C-alpha cells in the first residue's frame, strides 16, 4: 500500500469462532480481542494492481461478526449498496478468505462410545411385485461410535411414532447416549429457521427429552453441505428401499432384517471390528433407560372446552363439568388416555390405538440383545 494509507482490517482463516447477536458478554470480549489482534497483523501487498475489494475487508468482517450465516450473495448486494464498484469474483474471494471455517467432522478415532446417536425419519413409496403401491414410513437410528443401526417401520410421521420408536431403539441398544442428533427439524420442531435450526420445539417431544435426560441437536444440511451419508433417512431409503424389490410387506420386513444383519456384523476397511462387537463396548458408557418403553405416556398440553371435553387428534374425551376452562395435560399411552386439569383427573380407553413400531434390529441368533429389566411406567 502507498504511504499514508492505513492497513485494512483482516481476519485469519484459522479463526473458527464468530459470535452471534445473542451471545453473552464473554463472546463480545472475545470478538473485540479478535479484532484487536487483527489490527496488529500486517496485510501483505500482492503483485499487480490493488484489488477494489480490499478496502471492503473491514465491511465484510463486520457483517460476518454480526451475521455468521449470511449468504455471500447478500454480502455482495450490501457492499454494492455501500459503494463497491468492483467485480463479483474479487469480492467473493475476499468473503471466502475471511469467513470462519466450519469445524471438520469427527473421524472414527475421535468418536467417543456412548456419546452420539444419529436419527432420521423418512417416507418412501414401495411397489410390490403384485403392482400394489404402498407408502411406508420408517425411523432409523445409528450410533456414531459403533455405527450399529436399527430401523423401525412406523405407522406415520407423527411425534408419537417418532418418540415411541426412539425409546424402543434405546431399549434395544441397551441405554441412552448423551446426545441425539436428528437429520431434520420436523416433526420434533414446530418452527425452524432457514438454516434448519429449531426455533420452537414440539412440547411433547421436549418433555420426553427432559424425562429421558437426552440432549438433542438438529444437523440439517443445506446446499453444498449435503452429500452421501449426511442424511440417515435418505441413506436408508436409497440403499435399501430403492435397491430391493418386495413381494409383500412381510417380505419387505424380512429383507430389511437380512440387510441390517449384514450391516451390523460386517467389518470395514477402516475398522476390523463389526458394529455388533463395538456396540458391546459402547453399552458400558450408555445410561440406563428408567422406564418400560411399552408403557410410555406422552404429555400434551390441553384446555378443557366449554362442554367439559378435551379433543386430541380428532378424538373427544370427557372431563368433570367443574374443570371447564382449566389448562391441563393429556398423557397418551398406547392403550389409554389420562387427562389431568387442576385437581381433576379422568382416564379413558384410547379410541384409536396406533400399531406399535415394527422394530427391525438385525440381530443374529448368536448375538444377544440388551437384557430387559422390569421398569415402572413413565409419563412424559
Characterise this structure.
- The protein is of the alpha+beta class and 380 residues long.
- The chain has 3 domains: 25-98, no CATH class; 116-285, 2-Layer Sandwich (Nucleotidyltransferase, domain 5); 294-349, no CATH class.
- 28% of the residues lie in helices and 22% in strands.
- It is built from 9 helices and 15 strands.
- Strands 7-4-1-2-3-14 form a 6-stranded mixed beta sheet.
- α3 (72-81) packs across α4 (88-98).
Number of strands: 15
CATH class of the largest domain: Alpha Beta
- Note poorly predicted spans: 1-29, 104-109, 223-228, 363-377
Q: Beta-strand percentage?
A: 15-25%
Supply the number of helical segments.
9
Q: Helix coverage percent of residues?
A: 25-40%
Write out the CATH superfamily name of the largest domain.
Answer: Ribonuclease H-like superfamily/Ribonuclease H
Largest pleated sheet: 6 strands, mixed
| Series of H and E elements | HHHHEEEHEEEHEHHHEEEEEEEE
CATH architecture of the largest domain: 2-Layer Sandwich
Q: What's the gyration radius in Å? A: 27 Å
- How far apart are the termini? 65 Å
Number of domains: 3
What is the CATH topology classification name of the largest domain?
Nucleotidyltransferase, domain 5
Overall shape: it is: globular
Mean pLDDT: 79
Structural class category: alpha+beta
